[in-house]
Every structure is written in C-alpha cells, then in structure tokens.
Amino acid sequence: MSRRGRSTTIGKIAKIHQDRRVSEIRVLGELLRREQATRAGDGTTLHATPDSSTAR
To answer: Using CA atoms, how far apart are residues 18 and 12, in angstroms rounded to an integer?
Structure first.
C-alpha cells in the first residue's frame, strides 16, 4: 500500500508551500489594514473591518 498525506516528500513540499502562502496572505492583510487605518485618519472614507473578524 502506498504512503499518503504529509509523510511523503510531495506532501512535505506541499505543506511548506501552503504555509508560505498563508504567511504571505497574513502579511498582506496586516499591511492593508494599516494602510486603511492611515487613510481613515486622513479623513478618507473607507469601510474598514475590525481585526477581531479575521480568521487565523
């Protein structure tokens, strides 16, 4: 029977790739929230979402 899941080499590579992707998305989300907060402080009208609504 063949091995399945993350015990295989391909599974390990996929996990590394997915973890890197999640990290990049999280960093971009934080950057976007900071940018929106900066614009909101300048008086620009934006629809900002609260930080507590983001899933981690």
So the answer is: 10
Does the pTM of the predicted model rise above 0.70? Answer: no
How many angstroms separate the CA atoms of 25 and 23, rounded?
Answer: 5
User: What percentage of the chain carries pLDDT values higher than 90?
Assistant: 46
Going 56 to 4 to 16 to 29, the CA torsion angle's sign is negative
Q: Do 15 and 6 meet the contact criterion of CB atoms below 8 Å apart?
A: yes
**How far apart (Å, rounded) are the C-alpha atoms in residues 42 and 6?**
48
How far is residue 16's CA from residue 10's CA, in Å, rounded to a whole number?
Answer: 10
Tokens, residue 12: 């390990």
Residues 6+ apart with CB under 8 A from 35: none
